[in-house]
Known about the structure:
alpha+beta, eight-stranded antiparallel beta sheet, flat
Amino acid sequence: MGKTTDEYARRLVKVVQLLWRDPTRHFSTAQLAEVAHFSPFHFHRIYRDIMGETVAATQQRLRLHFAGRDLERSELTQLRVALRAGYQSNAAFVRAFAAAYGVTPGVYRRQRSLQFNNTPEMDMYLIELRTVAEPIHLAAKRHIGAYLNIGEAFSLLELAAPNLPLASNARWFGLYHDDPADVQQGIVGAELRSDACVEITAEATLPADLQKTQIHAGRYAVIEHRGAYSELDRAYQWLIGTWLPQSGEVPLPLPGIELYLNDPCNTEPKELRTEIWLALAD
């Protein structure tokens, strides 16, 4: 990344933070351009070139991301969910949601309710026992708060990535340190801790706002989930609550690991592919 592009990336940090911290608010191009100190004409092109999608696409992706959460975890009416997501009519919301998730909001809500209320089947996912021969070195951007909001940390890490000593064919991981149920009960603390990560070389030197960490060599139980990130709790429930007790395996006290196999910027939520890794004792 050249000096000019590096400066542009630094200016976009405030835009990324603003979009994630107020995802359902409608920001005009002029407003966001002013935050980044660009002209509106140049802002649109610069944002698209650096972030890999238009700012309008980012805003819609975030609105639908949080709308999916509302449909699963709240008693809000569908119209209220649509309005909170920035849509002026239920019809517009239904069209956008169905295109991204493959089903209408009403069907999605019913499906998720049935999943939560039913016991997962033993063969719900295919399990792979995988051995990682060498540590995987990572640059990590810490996120404090709801796991569904870790996308902000990933966006900030993406802005920094061109200046990092990335590994060949660098992969993107998420590390999740706390059990949400424990945090809600005050056992761990007030906030969930997670890390947005990208794979780097072993000898990498990182800027002050990033930390070096690693995925340890060893054995892992791995499953792949296809669908929105907000649905991953169901996959964890199967892996830890259904498969693990019947497997005879012993888990290690290490963070939960997610490996992201495609890019949410150019992939509909229904097509997202995520591996979940559970560290196992030898």
